[in-house]
Design goal:
The complex is a heterodimer of chains A (about 325) and B (about 350). Chain A contains 13 helices and no strands. With about 325 residues, chain A is mainly α. Chain A folds into two domains: about 1-75, no CATH class; about 90-310, Orthogonal Bundle (MetI-like fold), CATH 1.10.3720. In chain A, helix 5 runs parallel beside helix 12 (about 275-305) and helix 11 (about 265-275) packs antiparallel against helix 12 (about 275-305). With about 350 residues, chain B is α/β, with parallel strands linked by helices. Chain B has two domains: about 15-235, P-loop containing nucleotide triphosphate hydrolases (Rossmann fold, 3-Layer(aba) Sandwich), CATH 3.40.50; about 260-340, no CATH class. Chain B contains 13 helices and 13 strands. In chain B, the strands form two sheets. Chain B has an eight-stranded mixed beta sheet, with helices on both faces. In chain B, a hairpin with a 2-residue loop joins strand 10 (about 235-240) and strand 11 (about 245-250). In chain B, helix 4 (about 120-130) packs across helix 5, helix 4 packs parallel to helix 7 and helix 7 runs parallel beside helix 8 (about 200-215). The two termini of chain B are about 30 Å apart. Classes of the chains: A mainly alpha (about 325), B alpha/beta (about 350). The interface of A and B includes residues 215 and 227 of A. Chain A: Its main location: membrane. Chain A: This is ABC transporter permease subunit. Chain A: Pfam families: BPD_transp_1, BPD_transp_1_N. Chain A: InterPro entries: BPD_transp_1_N, MetI-like, MetI-like_sf. Chain A: Keywords: Cell membrane, Membrane, Transmembrane, Transmembrane helix, Transport.
């Protein structure tokens, strides 16, 4: 178990370095010169050159990358070229709202999707099953931004919900009404995959031998489904939820932008549009690292839930 | 085409009795008959073996008796009683109360029949607490005792193990412990040794027989292995393509099988062939249940079949006080001896 954990950590580190490299290179090929941007429209050639030297942009790429690595590792992700704000500080401020939004989305979407999947599996081929699966396909096929725009349209007409920004803390009505629409839009991403996976694994598990054994013991059908079938069927679903956190982050970028939610996603999009080189890099690295860490966490969770995995080392 | 139903030959009052049991499965291509007109009974303390090839319907029979058929199955029976109670009239709750307590089952695949993510001990504790009200700690002690009774070494350690940490033989012992924990009056064992090594097989058979004897349970033993039948059975029912073709005491069956299919299962025909003649295996496979041949379902594979067999289905006939067969030519020795 410990060995596995260390190996996972080592692999993650390699992946993370790769992410840093890609993030670094991606912004190299963007046809926007940060030195020009910083110097502004009135900047002279000499000024631009000085800024370039100051930022290390005159060095070979590999040297730039190593410097960059060193700075990131020491927690310094540079400063915004737009307003000179510290990237790390801006990110720290944006993490809270993003985590809040993602948690809110999962909080309603995961239980709903599980319930829908279970219902569909128990009534496989029935009307409920077909309705749930139609919903699931719709959830997968309709892009978040479209749902978000529809919701804004609805909110503007009915004046039922605020459509922009973050309200007070979540335990206040203001906070809840502000997060309602973005969390709903974002959560829809999860419904389809999770419901489908639950339906498939549970309806397989319902025919499994050990579930028949549970029935032969005289267990009630509720007990058979919840304690035996679902207990094994849930394992791939946990993995899937973990993997979905990735697309949830992607969705968060879009959702935050549409609803002006002050999170990492909006920070990233804003920085990219403004050509804010260090800020965009920081946000991308943050999103990627979060994705990698979540995956490791899901692996661990799976191991706890499935005793068979721990034995494989 | 309903088969005439003969009451199962019986000496004492049966614990379980079923008359004219039929099961069919709903499929996309119409109903698929799996069992047709099977009647049998088993008395306390008796071991009834049900034999047949794959596809003969023997597993379906065991699931039908336990009321564990999947929802796609339809089951009909003229009579189905356990200990004098009509099972058809019982509600789900009452059937559940019988299941696991009075009627227990051991399955074929110990590798998959146990819950993979639950400790062995917890699975036994669940089985105990489903029918007995007692503190969890006491149930656990009882679970460990039950494991010990099956000869599992260091049962307290095994109780904390997960199924994948045990060998196949130990898993089957755990399943046997679970099935017998309430000292059931009827035990249905569906090929409990098929998935095991031959040496372990013998130990498991001994274990089932000893424990069943100790508890005084009636046993229905499903198998395709005539060696196991010889080892375990008092009486034998032979199934072919969903119908019972022969029923006899184990001694009679081995001594003078009266259905050519039984002969084939026994693998040789010592009474009919010359000394030193080659053995006569059953050729071909079980016919597709959707396209059963007319007449006797076995005629396509039967070495003795003639015109009658291709058109007229033989009914179960009584040959002796505890002896039934469904062959036109029974008793075989007289008829065929005269013919050849």
């Amino acid at each position: 178990m410990m060995v596995r954990l260390l190996r996972r950590a080592a692999v993650s580190l390699v992946v993370l370095t790769g992410v840093l490299l890609i993030g670094f290179l991606m912004l190299q090929v963007i046809p926007a010169d940060p030195a020009v941007a910083i110097a502004g429209p009135q900047g002279t050639e000499a000024e631009i050159e000085a800024i370039r030297r100051h930022l290390g942009l005159d060095q070979p790429l590999i040297v730039q990358f190593l410097y960059y690595l060193q700075r990131v590792l020491s927690g310094d992700m540079g400063h915004s070229v737009i307003n000179n704000a510290s990237v790390s500080a801006e990110l720290l401020r944006a993490i809270g709202p993003t985590v809040e939004l993602m948690c809110a989305a999962m909080l309603w979407a995961v239980p709903t999707a599980l319930a829908l999947g279970i219902l569909a599996a128990l009534r496989r081929g029935g009307i409920i099953d077909r309705m749930v699966m139609t919903l699931a396909v719709m959830g997968v096929s309709i892009p978040v931004f479209w749902v978000g725009l529809l919701m804004i349209q609805f909110a503007v007409r009915t004046r039922a919900f605020p459509i922009q920004g973050r309200g007070g803390p979540l335990w206040t009505l203001d906070g809840l009404s502000h997060i309602a629409l973005p969390a709903t839009a974002l959560g829809l991403i999860l419904i389809g995959p999770i419901a489908r996976m639950t339906r498939t694994t549970l309806s397989d598990a319902l025919h499994a031998d050990h579930v028949r054994t549970a029935r032969a013991k005289g267990a009630s059908e509720t007990r058979v489904v919840l304690n035996h079938a679902l207990r094994t069927a849930i394992l791939p679903v946990i993995t899937l939820i973990g993997l979905q956190i990735g697309s949830l982050m992607g969705g968060a970028v879009v959702t935050e932008t549409i609803f002006s939610w002050p999170g990492v996603g909006r920070l990233a999009v804003g920085a990219i549009i403004a050509g804010d080189y260090p800020m965009a890099q920081g946000a991308i690295i943050f999103l990627a690292s979060a994705f990698i860490i979540v995956n490791v966490a899901v692996d661990l969770l799976n191991e706890l839930a499935d005793p068979r995995l721990g034995a494989r080392t | 085409m309903k088969m005439q139903s003969l009451p199962a030959p019986q000496t004492t009052a049966p614990l379980l009795r079923v008359d004219n049991l039929s099961v069919s499965f709903r499929t996309d291509h119409g109903p698929l008959p799996a069992l047709q007109g099977v009647s049998l009974g088993v008395s306390p303390g008796e071991t009834l073996a049900v034999v047949g090839e794959s596809g003969s319907g023997k597993s379906v029979l065991s699931l039908a008796l336990m009321n564990l058929l999947p929802p796609t199955a339809t089951m009909t029976a003229d009579h189905l009683s356990f200990d004098g109670r009509d099972l058809a009239s019982l509600g789900q709750r009452d059937k559940r109360a019988l299941r696991g307590r009075d009627m227990a089952m051991i399955f074929q695949e110990p590798a998959t029949a146990l819950n993979p993510v639950q400790r062995i001990g917890d699975q036994l504790v669940e089985a105990i607490l489903l029918h007995d009200d007692m503190p969890r700690v006491r149930a656990h002690t009882r679970a460990v005792e039950a494991l010990a009774a099956t000869g599992i070494p260091s049962p307290d350690v095994r109780a904390r193990a997960y199924p994948h940490q045990l060998s196949g033989g130990m898993r089957q012992r755990a399943l046997i412990a679970m099935a017998l924990i309430h000292r059931p009056r009827l035990l249905i064992a569906d090929e409990p040794t098929t998935a095991l090594d031959v040496t372990v097989q013998a130990q498991i058979l001994d274990l089932i027989r000893d424990l069943a004897r100790e508890v005084g349970t009636a046993t229905i033993f499903i198998t395709h292995d005539m060696g196991v039948v010889a080892e375990m059975a008092d009486r034998v029912a032979v199934l072919y393509a969903g119908r019972m073709v022969e029923m006899a005491s184990a001694a009679d069956l081995f001594d003078s099988p009266e259905h050519p299919y039984t002969l084939g299962l026994l693998g040789s025909m010592p009474q009919l062939s010359q000394r030193g003649a080659p053995m006569l295996p059953i050729t071909g496979t079980v016919p597709d249940p959707r396209h059963m041949p007319p007449g006797c379902h076995f005629h396509t594979r039967c070495p003795f079949a003639n015109g009658t067999c291709e058109t007229v289905r033989p009914q179960l006939r009584r040959l002796g006080p505890a002896r039934l067969t469904a062959c036109h030519y029974a008793p075989l020795l007289e008829t065929l001896g005269a013919r050849t």
